[in-house]
C-alpha cells in the first residue's frame, strides 16, 4: 500500500488539504471554509473526516500529518494566538490549539504529527520535493510581504535558543535607513521583498525624475497614490522599463550582498528564492547572484548557488506542510 | 581508573600537551620544541612518548586525543599546508599531515581522535569546560589579530557545505570602509579585534584632535608610528583616558550591532567573547552588550547573553583541544 501524508494549509478563511506521497504524487485534494467551524474541535473533526475519506478513496496508507502556519510552534506542536483564528479562543484553550494531541487522538497514535511556521515549511518542501533534495546546508528565502527564511544546517532546521531563529528579514543592511514594521530601520526586508521593491520604485520616482520619464510606473503611482504591487514592476520590467529594471538591480544588490554575509555564517550550498517576488524569476535572480558573487569573501567565492525554488509553480503551501511530516519521519 | 584525553596545542615553535579529564583536572603537562623534529613522524613519535609517559605516571586511562590548529580540517582529520610546518613537507605527504591515522596507529585504534581549527576548539572548550556547559546554541567570538568564531547550533559545531562556516569576522558591517586583509572592505574584524581597536585609536588621533589631547596614546603613537598593541589601549582605559574609552565604545558599538544581526540568524542563547581583546573584560563587554540590546529585533530582546569566556584566564589552547575529543566522545 502506498504510504502518504496529509499536508494541511490552515488559513483564516480556507483550510486546504492534500494527500501526498514522498515523490510529490497527489492522491486527493480538498478545501473547506475555516470560518464554517465555530470551535477548534469541530474544525479538527471536519479535517479528520476529509483526510480519512480521501485516503480511503485512493486506497493509500496515511502515516503522517503536516501543518504549516505563521504562528505554528514546532516545539510545543501547537498554534499560538493567531489573530485570524481568534474565533476558536475559549477560556479553556486560551487561543492555544494543540495540534499534536488533537490529531493523534483523531488519526491514531502512530501518525507522525509535524508543524512549523510557513518559512520552515517552505524549507522542508525544498528539501523533500524541491532542489535541496541532496543538500544538508541550504537556506530558503521567501520574498513576500516581508522576507522570511528557513535555514537547514547539517540536515536540520535551525530553531535556536528562542525557537525563532531564521529572522533574516530583520538583519540590518542599511542602518538608520528605511523604517521597518519591527520598529527599527534598515532591515533587509524593507528592500528585499515584494513590498520592498515597491518602496524602491516609489523612491526612484521621487529621487530620479529623469529615469524612465514615460514609465507606466509613474502613471500608476500617480493614479493609485504610489506603487503597491510588485506584479506591475515585473510587468514593466518585461517591457524593458528603466525604472523597473533599476528597482530590480537595487533589490538584487541589497539581497545579494546580504546573501554573501549569510554565507560567511553557515556556509550554505545554495540559497533558494521563493514567494511573490521570486516569481519575477531572472529579473530578481540575476542581479542577486551577480552582486552576491562580487561580495563573497574569497574562501566562499564560486561555492554557493542562488536558485529559484523548485516549488514556485506548484502547490507549495500543501507540499511544504506535507514535507514537514516526511522530514520528521526521515529523522526517526 | 580516571578517564582522560590528551589536549594538544601544535604551534610552529612549540607543541604543548595537557592530560585532562572532563572536569578540567590536569594530570600532567609538558611542552617541547616543534622545530626539533625534522619529520612529521618523528614529531608524532615524540608526542606519543610524552602522552603515554604522562598517563602512566598519573595512572589514568587515555581515551581521546584532541588537536586544535589554524589549518586543522575536521572532515579530513588532517592538517593541510600550514605555513609554519613547511619543514615536514615531503613529496610523499605533500604538506598534508593525517592526524587520525597517525595517532590511531600510535595510541591505539580505540582512541577517539578529534581535530579542528582554533576557533572551533575554543567553542568546544566553552561547551565542555566553560560557560556553555548547558547550552545547545551559542557562539564563541575570538577577538585576536582578526575575529574568529565557533558556532554551535542544536548542540553541534557548524561546518556548512564548504566546511569553513563561521567566518563572522568577514561579515561586512560598513560597506566600502576599512580595507580588510581578505581583499574586501568594511569587514567586522577590521573594527572588532585587537588590531581593529588599534586602527580605531589611530583614526581618532587623526580625526579628533581635541579628544584626549594629553593622552598617553598620542605619545605612544608618535614614538612608535601608530598604536600597534591593544594592551596599551586597555591600560589607558583603566586610567580613564578619553581616547581609549571612545575606542572601546566604537568597537563595542560595531560588535554589538553585529551580534544583534547574528541573533536574528541562529538565535544563540549566548555569545562568549574570547581572545586578546576580551582580556579587556568590562571595557569591551559593557558597550558590546549595551549596543546589542539597543539593536536587537523585538522577538529576541532580553533573550541573549553576552559573556566573557570562562577560559580567559586558563590554558585555553590545551583545554579547547581536549574539549574537541570530549565533545566527539559525547556524540558517539
What does this structure look like?
Two copies of one chain form a homodimer. In chain A, 38% of the residues lie in helices and 20% in strands. By secondary structure, chain A is an alpha/beta fold. In chain A, strands 3-2-1-4-8 form a five-stranded mixed sheet. The first copy, chain A, has a five-stranded mixed sheet with strand order 11-10-9-12-13, sandwiched between helices. In chain A, strands 5-6-7 form a three-stranded antiparallel sheet. Chain A is globular, with a radius of gyration of 21 Å. The model of chain A has no long low-confidence stretch (mean pLDDT 96). Chains A and B meet through helix 7 of A and helix 7 of B.
Give me the strand/helix succession of chain A: EEEHEEEEHEHEEEHHHHEHEH
The number of E-state strands of chain A comes to 13
How do the strands line up in the largest sheet of chain A?
3-2-1-4-8
* Average of the residue pLDDT scores of chain A: 96
Quick structural summary:
Two copies of one chain form a homodimer. In chain A, 38% of the residues lie in helices and 20% in strands. Chain A has 332 residues and is α/β, with parallel strands linked by helices.
Would you spell out the secondary-structure blueprint of this structure?
The structure is a homodimer of 332-residue chains.
Chain A: E1 3-10, E2 14-20, E3 26-33, H1 40-58, E4 61-68, E5 72-73, E6 78-80, E7 96-98, H2 99-107, E8 112-116, H3 118-129, E9 138-143, E10 147-153, E11 156-157, H4 194-207, H5 216-224, H6 230-238, H7 242-266, E12 270-274, H8 282-295, E13 305-308, H9 316-330
Parallel strand pairs in A: 1-4, 4-8, 9-12, 12-13
Antiparallel strand pairs in A: 1-2, 2-3, 5-6, 6-7, 9-10, 10-11
Amino acid at each position: 500500500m502506498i504510504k502518504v501524508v496529509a499536508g494541511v494549509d490552515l488559513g483564516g478563511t480556507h483550510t486546504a488539504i492534500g494527500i501526498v506521497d514522498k515523490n510529490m504524487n497527489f492522491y486527493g485534494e480538498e478545501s473547506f471554509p475555516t470560518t464554517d467551524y465555530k470551535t477548534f474541535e469541530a474544525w479538527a473533526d471536519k479535517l479528520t473526516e476529509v483526510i480519512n475519506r480521501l485516503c480511503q478513496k485512493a486506497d493509500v496508507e496515511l502515516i503522517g500529518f503536516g501543518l504549516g502556519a505563521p504562528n505554528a510552534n514546532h516545539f510545543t506542536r501547537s498554534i499560538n494566538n493567531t489573530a485570524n483564528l481568534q474565533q476558536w479562543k475559549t477560556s479553556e484553550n486560551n487561543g492555544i490549539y494543540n495540534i499534536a494531541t488533537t490529531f493523534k487522538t483523531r488519526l491514531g497514535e502512530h501518525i507522525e504529527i509535524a508543524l512549523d511556521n510557513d518559512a520552515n515549511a517552505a524549507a522542508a518542501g525544498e528539501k523533500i520535493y524541491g532542489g535541496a533534495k541532496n543538500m544538508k546546508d541550504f537556506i530558503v528565502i521567501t520574498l513576500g510581504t516581508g522576507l522570511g527564511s528557513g535555514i537547514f544546517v547539517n540536515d536540520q532546521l535551525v530553531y535556536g535558543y528562542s525557537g525563532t531563529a531564521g529572522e533574516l528579514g530583520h538583519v540590518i543592511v542599511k542602518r538608520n535607513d528605511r523604517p521597518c514594521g519591527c520598529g527599527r530601520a534598515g532591515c533587509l526586508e524593507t528592500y528585499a521583498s515584494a513590498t520592498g521593491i515597491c518602496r524602491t520604485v516609489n523612491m526612484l520616482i521621487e529621487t530620479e525624475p529623469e529615469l524612465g520619464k514615460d514609465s507606466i510606473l509613474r502613471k500608476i503611482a500617480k493614479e493609485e497614490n504610489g506603487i503597491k504591487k510588485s506584479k506591475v514592476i515585473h510587468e514593466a520590467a518585461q517591457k524593458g522599463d528603466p525604472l523597473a529594471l533599476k528597482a530590480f538591480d537595487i533589490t538584487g544588490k541589497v539581497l545579494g550582498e546580504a546573501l554573501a554575509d549569510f554565507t560567511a555564517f553557515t556556509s550554505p550550498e545554495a540559497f533558494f528564492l521563493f514567494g511573490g517576488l521570486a516569481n519575477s524569476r531572472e529579473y530578481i535572480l540575476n542581479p542577486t547572484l551577480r552582486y552576491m558573487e562580487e561580495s563573497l569573501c574569497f574562501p566562499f567565492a564560486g561555492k554557493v548557488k542562488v536558485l529559484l525554488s523548485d516549488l514556485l509553480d506548484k502547490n507549495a503551501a500543501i507540499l511544504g506542510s506535507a514535507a514537514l511530516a516526511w522530514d520528521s519521519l526521515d529523522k526517526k
